[in-house]
Amino acid sequence: MATAQQEPNTTDVTVAVETLREALTAAGIVLPSLGADVASPSLNLITLGRVRVDVVLRLAGVIQRGCV
Fold this sequence. Notes:
The protein is mainly alpha-helical. It has helices spanning 13-26, 53-66, and strands spanning 35-36, 46-47. The chain has a two-stranded antiparallel sheet.
């Protein structure tokens, strides 16, 4: 599992994607297009994809509750 303390570009993209997918699933949120950005492998970018408004609002609510 990836941790927030890791430096950018040191985390395996696949591990990061799966860690986020597991956290989102636990919160009841699915991002269908979540995956590694294959167009820029050296940058270790992750594609979150296009998301419906209701999913964005649920995601925002989860983040807001976690920040309290």
